[in-house]
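Deadline looming. Please check this record:
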Amino acid sequence: MAEIIISIFILLGSFFILIASIGMVRFKDLYGRLHASTEATSFGILLLLVGVSIYFNDTEVYIKTLLIILFIYLT
């Protein structure tokens, strides 16, 4: 059961990063490209990190994941 949840998180994260890269190609102006790259990529990285932290299931990995997510959303 855990493998299915991990796979869903990683696939969804990869999908959002793919959508961000397609948005970078499709949008014409600077602001559209910035919006596509930041919003979808941030959410995609969040999903990827959650999937990886569930996979390793270690307290140290959870703390590092939380800090990475915090720093990504602060910047």
In short: Residues 30-56 form the longest helix (27 residues).
